[in-house]
Amino acid sequence: MVMAGRHLPPDPNAGDESTLGGYMAGHSRPAAFDGPDGLPYSVDLLLDTTGETARPWGGALLFVRWRRVGEAGVDGHLESDFVVHGASEEEARDALQHLTLHEVKAILDALVQPTMPESGRRWWDAMRAEGTTE
User: Fold this and answer.
1) Angle (nearest 5°) at CA 90 between 87 and 94
2) Is residue 96 part of a domain?
3) Whole-model pTM above 0.70?
């Protein structure tokens, strides 16, 4: 299945573009990031009950990893633990939407780092070095 790309100009009145919710509202799409592994990720909000009386709702982030090579599609995903809490689902959603894009990127980097090879090399550096001695 081929999906045609679309370009819609951002709506500067939709919210603070430096926050996750403001970016998503202004651009009418999820925010996207390059991970430290050099792969592209998009992010979505996850909300669920925590089972805790003091903070019954939690918000986490779902990062979808996209294929870099070959047929377009999803290559995997990473989920954060709860990064915000709230007394209601609405409160937890609002807290997630107020995370800055820098905070979201830091969460992605922390999730990706342990999955990278011990060498810390990105995939394109490893491909470039193939057949050479280091």
Assistant:
1) 100
2) yes
3) yes
- The verdict on residue 128 lying in a domain is no
Asked if the structure places residue 103 within a domain, the reply is yes
| CA angle 22–114–55, rounded 5-degree value | 50
DSSP 67: P
pLDDT tens per residue across all 134 residues of the chain = 445 556 666 667 766 889 999 999 988 899 999 999 999 999 999 999 999 999 999 999 999 999 888 888 899 999 999 999 999 999 999 999 999 999 999 999 999 999 887 755 666 666 666 655 54
**Where in the sequence is the domain holding 59, given as residue range(s)?**
31-116
Ramachandran angles phi, psi of 27, nearest 5°: -105, -5
What's the total number of domains in the chain? 1
| The two structure tokens encoding residue 132 | 């050479």
At 116, list the tokens. 């990278």
